[in-house]
Amino acid sequence: MSVLENWQQWKGFLGDRLDQAQDAGMSKQVINDLAFQIGDYLAKQVDPKNEQERVLSDLWSVATPEEQQAIANIMVKLVQNDGTH
Q1: Which of 23, 51, 72, 82 is the most buried (most CB within 10 A)?
Q2: Could you tell me if 13 and 5 are in contact, meaning their C-beta atoms sit under 8 angstroms apart?
Q3: Where are the domains of the chain?
């Protein structure tokens, strides 16, 4: 099963990547910019695997670039405490 198929696993995966980025010394701005790039890639290239991802994809598709950046920033906040370590 892909990490994208389960919302809780997806959030945990993103939380782990966020922890790694912070441990590597990445700034909050760099992390938020990467989250935006990942969100944009997923919206354009990956079919949502669950209801939560479908909602995010639908919101992303109608959002302005500024709103997409806000969605990415909110996702970073959402997963901050969802890592496995």
Answers
A1: 72
A2: no
A3: 3-79
Phi, psi torsion values for 10, nearest 5 degrees: -60, -45
Q: Is the pTM of this model over 0.90?
A: no
* Calpha distance 15→68 (Å, rounded): 19
Tens digits of residue pLDDT in 31-47: 999 999 988 988 899 89
Residue pair 27/34 in contact (Cβ under 8 Å)? The answer is: no
Q: Output the CA torsion sign for 27, 32, 33, 34.
A: positive
* Cβ contacts of 60 within 8 Å, gap of 6 or more: 39, 40, 43, 68, 71
User: How is domain 3-79 classified at the architecture level of CATH?
Assistant: Orthogonal Bundle (1.10)
Question: CB-side exposure of 60: number of CA atoms within 13 Å?
Answer: 25
Matching residue, tokens 């990956």: 46
